[in-house]
Amino acid sequence: MSSLSERPQQAVVGLPLPHESAALHVTGEALYTDDLVGRTRDVLHAWPVQSPHAHAQITALRVKPAYDVPGVVLALTADDVPGINDAGVKHDEPLFPTEVMFHGHAICWVLGETLEAARLGAAAVEVEYEQLPSIVTVREAIAAGNFQGTGRHLDHGDVETALAGAAHLFRGEFEFAGQEHFYLETHASLAQVDEAGQIFVQSSTQHPSETQEIVAHVLGLASHAVTVQCLRMGGAFGGKEMQPHGFAAIAALGATLTGRPVRLRLNRTQDVTMSGKRHGFHTEWRAGFDDDGHLVALDATLTADGGWSLDLSEPVLARAMCHIDNAYWIPNVRVDGRIAKTNKTSQTAFRGFGGPQGMLVVEELLGRCAPLLGYDAMELRRRNLYQSHHATPYGQPVRHAERLEACWSEVLQSAEVEHRQAEIERFNANHPHTKRAVAMTPVKFGISFNLTAFNQAGALVHVYKDGSVLINHGGTEMGQGLHTKMLQVAATTLGVPLERVRLAPTRTDKVPNTSATAASSGADLNGAAIKNACEQIRERLAQVAGGRLGISARDVRITDGSLHGLSSTSESLRWEEVVHDAYHQRVQLWAAGFYRTEGLHWDPVAMLGEPFKYFAYGVAASEVEVDGFTGAYTLRRVDIVHDVGDSLSPLIDLGQIEGGFVQGAGWLTLEDLRWDESDGPNRGRLATQAASTYKLPSFSEMPEVFNVRLLEKAHEDGAVYGSKAVGEPPLMLAFSVREALRQAAAAFGPAGTSVELPLPATPEAVYWALDQARSSVPVKHLEAVGSSGG
Amino acid sequence: MSTTIKVNGGDLAIDGVPIHTTVLDWLRDRGLTGAKEGCAEGECGACSILVARPGIDSPTEWTAVNACLLPVGSLDGQEVITSEGLGSSSALHPVQQEVAVRGGSQCGFCTPGFVCSMAAEYYRPDRTPTAGEPCDHEHGPNGFDLHALSGNLCRCTGYRPLRDAAYALGDPATDDVLAARRSSPPPPPAPTKLAVAGAEFHRPAALDAVLGLLTERPDAQIVAGSTDVGVEVNLRGVRAPLVIAVDRLDELREFDFGPDEVRIGAALTLSEIERLLAGRVPLLAQMFPQFASRLIRNGATIGGNLGTASPIGDAPPALLALEASLVLASRRGERVVALADYFTGYRETLKAPDELIRAVLIPLPLAPLSAFHKIAKRRFDDISSVAVGYSVEVVDGFVSRARIGLGGVAATPLRARATEEALTGRPWTERTVREAAAVMATEGTPMDDHRASASYRSAMLGQSLLRFYAQHLEVEGVSA
């Protein structure tokens, strides 16, 4: 067992604690960035001028009329930028564009004494456009050859030979839209300038260090002149990894020019029309099976819809390609990946980060092919699961693959799946207008940033003279419970009660050069850094205590705030006294901690290596009921067994699993991004740009019965206190919902019906699928000619 | 004298606040930042607050509403409780306690709104524990109706812990001040006249004064719950020069279940009507839970829903099937118009600019077979792709009367006249229904939009009739 993962007796990690801010959340006392505005004097408010065209050259921009609106203070344009006019790290996102790249693109910003003044001022700005041809759909981009960034190629085995020799060959093509993050808190920044010209930006950002960098380069300042703080976020889900930077830069630029605090908070419509989303994809695939239902080869082309700029599209694509296998062993795999450039918002990180899109391909093909192969889909999936001696197509051994089987068996048993399948069969036979189905799908998800350099973290831990502890780390809190876990890690490592530890807000002047809190890695990286800092302090205190107790420092243990020797009867010292003594002995009572994930290597060009520290596993079984008249459905029951290692904080992890699952189900079944693809005047406009038109899961989408279990005895040797990351993997357990809907729709038709189910599987989509199944005749042998899809 | 709103027990002035300022922005400007803006259109509930409103089962009921939709003047003289007023982090309210310890908050942004909506249900006077197991998946053993939270969205938790928190709530303690507050009446509506920066907000004390203002000021905007107007203000920047609040006018809040008709005052909220009818109009009883969310139904009035004349409103298809009519009032007098004649075009009606909807009349007796079918993407709180209301009578196996109201398939709500004709006088059999369903699928002129395709809408019309028949097959099958 590694020292990183070894968990002491009486550990505070592992206790099921509520969120550290729960009491502040429920009372409304918890502060978010925009809650600071009323607590700050003389704040100016920002409002954007947004383009009404998908693609156009700006031929004239007249801001003067804005100044005729009472209360307008300043209209910000490209001329005001002292540094680099760019909001990204790829230098393809002009902060103030001359060429409009998507409908809703912000052209300039107006600052007003009130939000109303800024809004009216923005409405008064005059812009002239020369419209340009636009590419709105990924299919249009493919037809036009309009790509961006670097395409990738993953090749393992001999796909052509394997496909040629496969007993059953299928092919398909499908396309699916992205997903709006719809964090409840929209993008918000509040920027101020202090007496020394230092910029202080409070921002709802997952990536304070990068927000700092972008603000600095826009203002033409060094990074040390900019501090970014994030108190907490009202949800982020990846949507605040890259996207906050430009908004923070606008606020900072306004504050610099006016000398007054500037608040930029997007309203929902602005947020949805301006900020990036999950990537939609177009996919084509060919798959071969042997006579025993084993996948022998997969050939796929993935085209990610990147939107107007590159953003994180390249790593998203890489993760999609690396996850096309999901949890299944496929001996021969070829994947071509490319990024379409379209006149839409710049698509970005979203929980799963390409993983869901890649995995969707294999789940789609298994769901479609199972009836054609004559297999129950559940059986087909199970017989293709990875075994412990397998490696992925990119060459990484699938360590702990046996946990897939363990999760699968436990779900099967605890959810009484086979018994319920029989019940469902009886139910379906007696209900012509209603059908039920249960589906099981697995998840295997690689943990670590694909880009190796990001896998590092820092922490700063102070022990004050009175024994109280203050921790600071580079991770941000977006609701995922990171801070709760970090408090537990610090209390465990120092051996003090949780109440002795406080956590200070994330700030770039405390811990520098941090990575985004993303890739599910927040607890792994920051937890290890905090542990490292706490260990340094603990060792120093052990020296002090050893001296007092007359024992070797190596034999000093700290539990629950007392320092003692190995024997339970030995003399003990209170934490506070030892800290007091240490101070007087001039022992350093604070420490900076650092962590980098060891053992990672990745060749992004060859798509080979071991980019992940480990895999997280899980299995879900979902049961649905579908109404044959309308296609409307209910999610009757969900059972999940998920591998979080030895949980740092079980209540937090449970929340991540449940929430991720429902969010995934939202993407797959309900959330419907619709862009105007017509040639009309609104081409490129997002038609679903409000909560009234873009429907998130509500209480009615919650599974009626929802059983979630953490896989037991799941120690992860390479991670902090034996735990595993949890943020993203459970989202993909929701494939079971879509597959259950597919099977329920098929149940309206004759046995062996293969159902094509578009995404999202809205009631309308399910209705057409079941209507087709209902009117179809049994098809037995499609496979030889190989057309199961599109 | 200054105009004030009592918030969490203390009076806060609203003098000089611009007329179109929402209650949410006003609260937040005063440092009460618990309530949040998540959508500004009454969809997410992050802004939910409690208002003391006249009750049905007790003098006052704590009613959860969307603060983002209400103009601040509309709460003049009223009492409001926010999440900060329910409890503090050192002394949590029972609702806050349950949500906190059960993992009901993750990012916490939606949480204060959830807490307020949950508290309203906690204090609902007629919430009574069911004996033993919950009767369905939408009611807890403590009588908690999950629909109370249908207007609150959470993007983090997946809702299960919030449901568990709601179902774990007991009854308010005997010394609970908010529970005690229910036993005395809420503040009466304050006649209000605010004028700020060229815009005015009026709450006249009597209907006659409203009708007078309507005659003089064609530019006036009537608001009741402001659930529709509030969206226009927030999302489209509509700024009417004169806003007239009518939601507390006695003349508009009549309710009478007579022998020949039901009379429902136009300013009664959907929630109030649901409680007052108590299931006596089954078609409406089916509609209420599907009409937007509890938060919206607590503000939205039946008159408002008909006044905006949206083709996708939920009440019109139901009321068309019930052959309802409207009482329109103006200085010129009152007149009664059939709802079927009322809608004249997209958001256009027979109502003259100086007229106000005073009441809705539903003739009795009701047809024995009825149903409300709503097709939408989401079961709770969604806008109809298609909505259908049925009132059908079958005598001796033959359809003697069929009234079918449709929404979402034309520029106005409409009656499915051809389908009604195809059913009337025919035997109530699958053959008749199949033939009529084929007719029904051609009713209206559905269009493609982001909610549904035209072909799905048409298909749903036909399917709806088949489903209606399937639902009433067993009852009527013997005589058919």
TrEMBL record, chain A:
Q: Which residues form the Aldehyde oxidase/xanthine dehydrogenase a/b hammerhead domain?
A: 27-133
Top-level taxonomic group:
Bacteria
One Pfam family of this chain: Ald_Xan_dh_C
Q: Spell out the InterPro entries in the cross-references.
A: Ald_Oxase/Xan_DH_a/b, Ald_Oxase/Xan_DH_a/b_sf, Ald_Oxase/xanthine_DH-like, AldOxase/xan_DH_MoCoBD1, AldOxase/xan_DH_MoCoBD2, AldOxase/xan_DH_Mopterin-bd_sf, Xanthine_DH_Mopterin-bd_su
Instruction: Locate the coiled-coil region(s) and give their ranges.
Output: none
* Entry-linked NCBIfam families: xanthine_xdhB
Q: State what protein this is by name.
A: Xanthine dehydrogenase molybdopterin binding subunit
TrEMBL record, chain B:
InterPro entries, alphabetically?
2Fe-2S-bd, 2Fe-2S-bd_dom_sf, 2Fe-2S_ferredoxin-like_sf, 2Fe-2S_ferredoxin-type, 2Fe2S_fd_BS, Beta-grasp_dom_sf, CO_DH_flav_C, CO_DH_flav_C_dom_sf
Q: What is this protein called?
A: FAD binding domain-containing protein
Q: Per the record, a Pfam family?
A: CO_deh_flav_C
2Fe-2S ferredoxin-type domain location: 1-86
Q: Does the keyword Metal-binding apply?
A: yes
Annotated signal sequence is: none
Q: Keywords assigned by UniProt?
A: FAD, Flavoprotein, Iron, Metal-binding, Oxidoreductase
Q: Which PROSITE patterns match?
A: 2FE2S_FER_1, 2FE2S_FER_2, FAD_PCMH
Q: Outline the extent of the FAD-binding PCMH-type domain.
A: 194-367
